[in-house]
Amino acid sequence: MLNQCSRLTLRDRLIVQTPRAASPPTQAEIIALEADLNTLLADRLNAFRESYPKEASGVRHVGDYYRQYSAFDVGPWRVVYVNGFYASDANDVVARDQWDWRKMPFIVCDGGQGSFGVEYYPATKTFANFEFNGTFSGPTRLGR
User: Fold this and answer.
1) pLDDT in tens, 13-62
2) What residue ranges do the domains of the chain occupy?
3) Partner of 85 for a Cys bridge, out of 34, 39, 115, 137, CB 3.0 to 4.6 A?
4) What is the C-alpha separation between 123 and 26, in angstroms, rounded?
5) In sequence order, which residues have a C-beta less than 8 Å from that of residue 80 and are 6 or more positions away?
6) CB under 8 Å to 77, separation ≥6 — which residues?
């Protein structure tokens, strides 16, 4: 999940420590982060629309994204990493390749606001390092 090709992740930001895979996020952690993630995502999509008005018509809405969650320990901190991507991209891959995004990390190269990542810290109930993918420069490439 932390091997994204068009945006930095928790793994890329750490200099001294390496994130260690932890037990999967709990239902309570997911419910807690989802309570605020939709607001954060909506704010970032609106900022994208304002920054790139010529591309605004192609910007999706909060409900257009699927999400994957994984948990890591970094020193004393538990971090839930959220990998978000357009539902239509995932559905296209499932139909074409019989590949299940629910079981494997979904990695999109390029794609702009079509994919995002964000760290959630359950102990403080805060988000950090929200990033959309790199700018769109042609067809979206799906990595595995």
Assistant:
1) 655 567 777 789 999 999 999 989 999 999 999 888 888 777 766 778 88
2) 10-143
3) 115
4) 13
5) 25, 29, 30, 33, 69, 70, 71, 119, 120, 121, 122
6) 121, 123
d(CA 52, CA 139): 19
Spatial contact of 82 and 37, defined as CB atoms under 8 Å apart: yes
Question: What is the pTM for the complete model shown?
Answer: 0.77
Alpha-carbon span 137 to 66, nearest angstrom: 22
Please state, in angstroms and rounded to a whole number, the distance separating the CA atoms of residues 51 and 36: 23
Q: What is the Cα–Cα distance from 22 to 9, expressed in whole angstroms? A: 16
Task: Let me know: does 139 contact 89? Beta carbons within 8 Å.
Answer: no
Contacts of 136 (CB under 8 A, 6+ apart): 110, 111, 112, 114
In the chain, the N- to C-terminal Cα span, in Å, equals: 10
